[in-house]
Structures are given as structure tokens and as C-alpha cells.
């Protein structure tokens, strides 16, 4: 993975001042480069992200795997899941929801988008706040299934997120990660958010709501 410059706000005091002013000035992107990269490859490995470093965890990325019996079969199946979960009620992930087998009562699955560099993350996207959102899944055996936009494996793409701060102002942000095929592992290397309330951010942008952007 390539290394990136850590920049944006020069100190925590500057960061705090932006919020005390009510975020009505020009925004900034607060960028966090994770060193070393987080690799989730084993059962129940997880990584929690506090987007704005306020002491409240915002999102959890987790790798799940193991054997199970499906409700329609006694046959054993093995599964790999990579999921992302909002950890606060007002937080959400850009993606879709899909109702499976609606004629039988159905159940709903949630699938985050694979967002490309420079794509705008804002109110033009659908956002889902369900806890269990599937980046990729691979179920082998008689109950086999595959799914999730991230299942095939992607290098350095983006998850779009939205979260509320302590002033009940919501912010858009991105989490950059890579996945291997068949939902075997996920690598998380950086994330960022726009400090200006209700203002979109371009995927990979490390500058923010100004006249120029710098995209990783």
C-alpha cells in the first residue's frame, strides 16, 4: 500500500475551534492515515473508527467467519462475511437495501457501495443505518451464496459514511480500504471527513470544502 502525507488541521485546538464556531466558515477535511494498515483476516477481528476523535466510536469494520446450519437445512455451511456497522443511531453508510424472498415474509440485507476516487459523497447517495451491512459474503456448502459489492476484491476504494457530532450536526466522510476476493480479508488504511455541516466530500479528498481539492 502506498504511504500518504498526514495533513489538514495543525492541532486539536484548531479542530475544536472549528466546531465552537458552529462550522459556518469554510470547511476542512480532517484526514487520518492509519499506520500500520489494519488487516482483518481472522474470525471476529474488528476495527472501530472514531471519525472526529471525540471519544465516541462511529463505525466498526469486522471480519466474521465460521460454520453454521441454515434455517432451511440441516447441512453444515461455512461462511465469510466482511461487514461495516454504524455504532451511533444517527450514523449511516452509503449503500442499498435489498429484500430477500418477499413472498415468504422476506428479510432485508444491506450492501455498501464501492465508491471510486473523486466521487462525491453527499446527499445524492442513499444511506443506510442498519447495524449489519455486508461488504462481501461467501457461504459455501448446500446453502451457498455470494454477495456484496466488495466481494470480488477491490484495491483502495472508498466506503461513504455520514455521522453526527456532539452538536447534532452531521458530516460526510470516507473510509478507504481494500478487499480480497471471496470476502477473505479487508485492509483499512485511512479515513477522512468534512468539518462543515451537511457538506459533501469527494472520495479521497484531503482538503475539504475549499476552492481546490487534493485527492489521494
Based on secondary structure, the structural category is mainly beta
Overall residue-averaged pLDDT value = 83
Number of strands: 14
Report the major sheet. Answer: 7 strands, antiparallel
Can you count the helices? Answer: 1
Please tell me what the overall shape is: globular
The helix/strand order is HEEEEEEEEEEEEEE
Task: Spell out the key features of this protein.
single chain; mainly beta; seven-stranded antiparallel beta sheet; five-stranded antiparallel beta sheet; 14 strands; 4% helix
Structure, described:
This protein is mainly beta. It is built from one helix and 14 strands. The strands form three sheets. Strands 1, 5, 6, 8, 11, 12 and 13 form a seven-stranded antiparallel β-sheet that branches. Strands 2-3-4-9-10 form a five-stranded antiparallel β-sheet, with no helix packed on it. A hairpin with a 6-residue loop joins strand 3 and strand 4. The radius of gyration is 18 Å and the shape is globular. The two termini are 12 Å apart. The N terminus is likely disordered.
